[in-house]
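Figure 6 in text form: structure in, sequence out.
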């Protein structure tokens, strides 16, 4: 099979552009990846009164402050607008998703912390769901399914990288 030079050039250009897609995705959404945001980037603080979601609690673990927020499905969809079709940890394509659980982590000085976060959620039926999170607006969140009435026990594991990595473990109960 013989192809022309123009066809080969178009195919090569397409492959090159496709290889750049992940870089552009992170570039377009630095708020979703706090650790990869450009140094000196201006972040507009969100006033707590205007933040969507229900605050579930604020915990202190070691010298870190953890603030938990649960977005309902409508708030979750609004927060994810423009990210349709992207695949990331913490995002689910399931129609059963009822919301998005977020933890905001701050150090002793009140600065947001870059971390890897995982949730383990045990529902009222004792079924266990585990998920990693994605970074978003200085927090880490994941889609959750909480359809049944009752209590959901959430275990949280946070790994903060650095010269001396820190591991935090916390838990909370969400009543539906």
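Output sequence:
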């Amino acid at each position: 099979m013989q192809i022309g030079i123009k066809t080969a050039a178009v195919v090569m250009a397409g492959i090159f552009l496709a290889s750049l897609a992940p870089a552009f995705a992170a570039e377009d959404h630095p708020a979703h990846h706090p650790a990869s945001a450009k140094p000196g980037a201006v972040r507009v603080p969100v006033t707590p009164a205007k933040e969507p979601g229900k605050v579930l609690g604020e915990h202190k673990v070691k010298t870190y402050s953890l603030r938990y927020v649960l977005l309902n499905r409508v708030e979750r969809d609004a927060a994810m607008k423009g990210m349709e079709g992207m695949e990331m940890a913490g995002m689910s394509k399931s129609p059963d998703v009822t919301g998005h659980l977020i933890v905001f982590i701050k150090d002793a000085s009140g600065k947001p912390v870059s971390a890897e976060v995982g949730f383990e959620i045990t529902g009222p039926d004792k079924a266990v769901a585990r998920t990693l999170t994605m970074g978003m607006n200085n927090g880490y969140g994941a889609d959750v399914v909480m359809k049944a009435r009752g209590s959901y026990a959430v275990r949280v594991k946070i790994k903060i990288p650095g010269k001396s990595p820190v591991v935090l473990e916390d838990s909370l109960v969400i009543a539906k």
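Caption detail: The chain is about 20% helix and 40% strand.
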